Batch of 2 targets.
Target 1
Amino acid sequence: MADLSALSPEQRAAELAHQREVHTEFKAAGLTLDMSRGKPCAQQLDLSTPLLSILQSADDCFGEGGLDCRNYGVIDGIPEAKRLMAMLLDAEPDDVFVFGNASLTIMHDAIARCLDYGCLGSTPWSQLPRVKFICPVPGYDRHFAILEQFGIEMLPVPMRADGPDMDAVEQLAAEDAHVKGIWCVPRFSNPSGAVYSDAVVRRLASMSCAADDFRIFWDNAYCVHDLDDAAAEEERVLDIGIACREAGTPDRYLKFASTSKITFPGAGVAAMACSAANLAEAKRLCGAQMIGHDKLNQLRHARFLPDAAALREHMRAHAAILRPKFELVQRKLREGLGDTGIASWTDPRGGYFVSFDGLPGTAARTVALAKDAGVVLTGAGATWPYGRDPEDRNIRIAPTMPPLADLDLALDIFICCAKIAALETLR
Amino acid sequence: MADLSALSPEQRAAELAHQREVHTEFKAAGLTLDMSRGKPCAQQLDLSTPLLSILQSADDCFGEGGLDCRNYGVIDGIPEAKRLMAMLLDAEPDDVFVFGNASLTIMHDAIARCLDYGCLGSTPWSQLPRVKFICPVPGYDRHFAILEQFGIEMLPVPMRADGPDMDAVEQLAAEDAHVKGIWCVPRFSNPSGAVYSDAVVRRLASMSCAADDFRIFWDNAYCVHDLDDAAAEEERVLDIGIACREAGTPDRYLKFASTSKITFPGAGVAAMACSAANLAEAKRLCGAQMIGHDKLNQLRHARFLPDAAALREHMRAHAAILRPKFELVQRKLREGLGDTGIASWTDPRGGYFVSFDGLPGTAARTVALAKDAGVVLTGAGATWPYGRDPEDRNIRIAPTMPPLADLDLALDIFICCAKIAALETLR
């Protein structure tokens, strides 16, 4: 298809009329397709079926050193689960605190502790007149929702192909002591799929911060979620822990990961890794909140994924399911919108999303049109703080959940809607 | 044994010397026995072994309405788990919010939400100059630890055989708007085993509170934890929800329960029940913290305990294991200390503890002596706010975990230590 802005007004009107006819046909078909959230599909979940029955008898429930994982205790996780999560977190097992099923909860609660108690002796953030966080955009809506609920002001900075715009980040961190943290999804960032370069990681670790208790919230949600072996080899991210220790800022980072997109999203294991000082403080403060998380589920996971080779093999099986979906997204968008001049999108090598940018002022309209035709997309604006994309152009495409045939159809509808929204704007 | 205070000084000195010899022998034996925490024993845990393998295949993971419990979502719990937890909570399933493995975490987080956001539009508690809680004593150390960590002032009131001293509770609640809540363990209270009378429940529900957002934290940890069928029939507690609705205070209560002492303490299911308004607020606020808890574990529990009859039968099996232990405690204490005039203790019909009162000034010494002889007891003072028992006399006895033979020996040692501490005081 030709560049839509290069068409004559008459040609554009004809194309708009045509796309509206197509859209009307889609609507008449009464479809219900969901591309809204980064959920694994049923076929992926089936890969972890052995996890269900890996503990069968009472004898199976005893961990290393004879620990009865059925009973109370062990607030920071059993040793075998610490080792598993250390693989995901680029950490030593001793630096790992294993929690329940959701890294989102760990991150929320970590910020709550900063607000209530400060960090390693600093003033509790809640006692400050204001608290601000740096938010690379487009970003993850649930990260933003935590900050919004706590009343923490969000400062968007642009996300690049190699991580956040570090000039902007450094300036914000250096000039304002109320700037207390930054969200980072360092590998296959949500939604762009960007992978942080070593230079970006080093700048984050070494930058001058007006706040002594500045914290990098390092959400490594897609740490092993590559679409192929080449990506696993080539898209390595420098560990923020190493970078911070080298930069003399060992307490600056908190790393998070989970098995949500490795085993079962609703029933996985999540963990945090950080410096010994941060870990000791977290253990002390969490002692009032919990006696221990589900150690049986920790044990199930440790036995199901006993080493790096097992983990790698398991993630290869995920990739085999997901790769055709991501390839389909690229092919359909290229064929449908490639030469139209109305859109650009990312082509990630892992993770769960493709970030799509339409013409300014078209994202909300595209999402609404798609909904009319039975395709639920992530809400327009969701990738921005407060749900407000100032240019109204970014849409997160989540291709993992629908079966291939559904995804194919959903993309046809999406492309049609993006064209309509663009043509209405160009008119 | 005779009343120790009625003995002559010489007789007391001789008895003290004798008990010290006994104590020395115990020490020499190098024992390690633990009566410190209310943990189920291995035999109890074995009762729930079928839970481990109740979900075997991918097909087993689908709940009512075809919900795939492996995937993300359903923040407030699956319907079948709501029904199970409603049985424990004396609630309707619609009033239940199912969480993860620990009611302690739910209670901690519920208080955190009151502090951060207030209740149903009230001023956030953290913005008040101070917040106070009524704490019946002796009580549960982990309840007190939550308040202490949040800087909430604790106001002890005496615990009676039928619940807290309601004259004291009513006065505190009525006169000070900073008094925001009360801890209640209404059935087989920790540690006394007291069961709240209907009159106490009605007074809690209907009392005048200076704080409009006063909350009763109703921790029904031992809701079905009877030592025999007669107790299950006779020791019924009026539901605080019914009482509050009748009293026109429908939002005053938050009820909590878990399967920690029904199935696996480390891997159970916990839930909260409350008014529709409180539930809606909790769901809204929790949306930033969690996507959903472990629905596979919820499904396991719902299938393992599908109805009231199954639950009752399962708790009977627990009682059969625990009853001899509680009977042993009563027999040994009666035989060892019954006529000495130095101690009194409760005789609960359920729950996990016996509350022991020695002579004033002897609890810390008794616990220290026991530790010297290899018996770990709950720390003296733990049953009081800030760990400070003003009379230094209360000790929580937790007889559930040790095998009967160990418990027998531990009680011998405990009785010896209680006598030594008393005789030293009487000297």
Target 2
Amino acid sequence: MTYPLESEPHAGPRLDDPEYRAAVVDLLGVLAFTELTAFVRLAADAALAPRIGDEAQLAGMAVAEFRHFTLLRDRLAELGADPEQAMQPFVAPVNGFHESTAPADWLEGLVKAYVGDGVGVDFYREVARFLDTETQALVLGVLEDTGHSAFVVTTIREAIAADPRVAGRLALWGRRLMGEMLSQAQRTAAERDALSNLLVGGASGAGMPGFDLAEIGRMFARLTENHTRRMQAMGLSA
Amino acid sequence: MTYPLESEPHAGPRLDDPEYRAAVVDLLGVLAFTELTAFVRLAADAALAPRIGDEAQLAGMAVAEFRHFTLLRDRLAELGADPEQAMQPFVAPVNGFHESTAPADWLEGLVKAYVGDGVGVDFYREVARFLDTETQALVLGVLEDTGHSAFVVTTIREAIAADPRVAGRLALWGRRLMGEMLSQAQRTAAERDALSNLLVGGASGAGMPGFDLAEIGRMFARLTENHTRRMQAMGLSA
């Protein structure tokens, strides 16, 4: 393990630090597999669309996720990691999440796309500040590419206007999605030392970047606040 | 209906000819919806992949189809047509094709991707020569973007090497796919006057471009010959 030189005390994390590097490979691995899976699931949900234009919209969201996947995979390869190997530890939890949250219809699929994308964007933004400059640029670049949310918000609001009973069912669905995401994320982090060291590096005192414990609590508060805001935007109580 | 000026006897079809224009809108409509649906189905089949790398490969093939879709849709809009309306007549036959050919497993999904993509490319090439210069450039541009076939050929050959019984089942499957494609195409063309006039314009004597009847027979012969070649490339009898 290497340390920053004394002359550059705030040089930030360095990829030639093997502990930091392992954490970044883990992080890019989980993000890459999450994006690949989001692509496949969103694209499949597009088949539920009632109109061709809707199908094309959801397909477009899926394709954006695939672009993110390729960026993350290529970065893993650049770092000398085997992308498949880096993603492998996250196959079971990510697939488990999707199996326990298969949308029953088109509207549930849309809410899942919007809620999942939103939490993903928030998490990317939170974690970006602990990354080395290059990895940070990649993660922030992925963020810029999102933003099909107006379509989802409009469609859900229209569906509720047409049949107000829809709101209760979709509100429950949104809460279940958020709960499943948080519990899967927690379980995954608990099993991956390098990854959780990156996130709670400040707490471990090991010279790694990351949140301290109070900050982790605040991060979760921010994630759930933003989730609540998104649910409200769709006309749903969170 | 306008005719080429005498001074330019071989000027080719013109978009200000309403009959030709209607045929092009029909053609772009069926191609666009075929690509959108191919995207959705291929992406969903990617979930059947045994390995992450395989999943990413099939996902990449799907994304190429989505790019084609957006090119075709944008061209429809450029021509002043409503893309959704142009695609609508083809929803039932294209979805019907996919419902009657849902792959039972990963290998069937791969063969379908390869066979479908191959026949699509052949058909684009056949029809391109009857199009005005701009539409032709678009259709030929879509063609350039394909070519993930090496991956499929290798994977199918490996699967047959590992278990030779696979070959018989997949050969039957490939024949069924080709049969379903031809019969759906025939039924669709029979219902769409403008479209079939474009393809058999030479036979109608109405001044439209297109094949004469003997040439249609030869086109089908070429499509099935190329299909046979692709089946053989995978190690399958056609």
